[in-house]
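pinned: reference chain
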Amino acid sequence: MAERGDDGVAAVKEMTGGYGAHSVIEAVGTQDSMMQAIRSARPGGHVGYVGVAHGVQLPGEELFYAEVHLLGGPAPVRRFLPDLIHRIEKRDIDPGKVFDLTLPLDQAAEGYRAMDERRAIKTLLQP
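pinned: its structure tokens
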């Protein structure tokens, strides 16, 4: 789904017959992505967020009337990383489906900029 913000919420509502999603994952960590996640969930639904939110402020009254469950915390990357790297090395999984921009390591700032500007989903940095 390419839509963001209100358009993204409308697309989710359309796909779910107007109800909203039962479960939503928020993994970007911005104010806009958090609000899209909350507004995309149906009443009684669940929003799970991972990673560190950047300047996210939850409007209490809107959250109260949204009637959603909100639960999150840090992404336990170190717990899963060794197994994921092993699976990639054995070619059990293909991380190329996630990375859509490859840059040299010295262009890391450009990679983050591209993701922030939605020109890339995830940037793969290579030495």
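why pinned: The chain is about 40% helix and 25% strand. The beta strands are 21-26, 41-50, 69-73, 101-104, 123-126.
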